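Journal club prep — side note

Before the paper discussion, L.F. wants everyone to see what a predicted structure for a comparable chain looks like in token form. Sequence:
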Amino acid sequence: MAKAKVKKNKMKTHKGTKKVLNIRQSGSITVSKQGVLHNTGKRSTKTNRQKRNANSLHKSDLKRIKDLI
């Protein structure tokens, strides 16, 4: 009688993190700003324009967050 294979538990992707972060080809991660998706009509054009630009994640945070994605 053969032994049954035991599946190892895999770490699940954190879906909230996945929606906010974007991995570039170089391996660096960009972070989108909050409050860009809807209800932008009440904010000034300047604010909406500034929020469209993404920031890159700091190297110290990169190590922590690589596991979540």
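L.F.'s comment for the group: The CA atoms of residues 7 and 31 lie 34 Å apart. Keep this in mind when we get to the figures.
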